[in-house]
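Lab notebook page, bench 4
Experiment: in silico fold of construct C2
Operator: M.H.
Input chain length: 258 residues
Purpose: comparison with the prior construct
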Amino acid sequence: MVDWGLGNYERIALQLLPAAETVVETADPAPGETLVDIGCGSGNAALLAAERGTAVIGVDPSERLLEVAAASAEERDLNAEFVLGDAASMPISAAEADVVVSVFGVIFAEDPSAAAAEIARVTKPSARLVLAAWVPGGPISDAVRLTRETMAEILEQPPASPPFTWHERESLADLFEPHGFSVSVIEHAIPFHAPSVDEFMRIEGENHPLAIAARPVLEKAGRAEEIREGMHRIYDEANEDPGAFRITSRYVVAELKR
């Protein structure tokens, strides 16, 4: 399991702010409500919700990112607290949340069924849940898969099981309808920009926890340059801006209501 406190994920998270804005707008939290942000990271969605006057609890397994989020909340005088936990184990009272959101956070839950049960536990009978999940495919997905498959080969690990399909309405319905939620899904897209492919890869390589965790393994095996060239080729072929660099990733926003 990757330590998301590695590197400077808060810099990477800035690129995901438009998705957080979409999730919070969809959830529409109000003053007097309590919102829980699962996998809050450095606080994108949590802080946006707190700006609306909502009482916010951010949950994340990374102590460092919680500290970053808490410092931002204090600096902006927002009503938000940040606590250590994960989707399947939250230090939150039963039926405390009016709203639960997760921007590419709950999708990393090791046990989706346990996460769904925990979300059901902390939500009120009238609660709503809004989550963002990546749609598989696209250049970033392909580049990450290249790295992960190479890492598994180096470490002689068996192929990973297919991940839970958080982006599919039917899968979410199977997971959450037993807890009384109805499900709707809308697809969105988010662009990633940089002056060049090389600059994009430099920023990701220096800041993203996945890249930082993989680097020593790849370097020790003598395959770091191979992977760098493979990722560069993927991004080059997908580049949408001949004068600079732009790629687009698809994601869904799922809205679940009781």
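Observations: The chain has one domain: 9-257. The chain has a mean pLDDT of 97.
Next step: discuss at group meeting.
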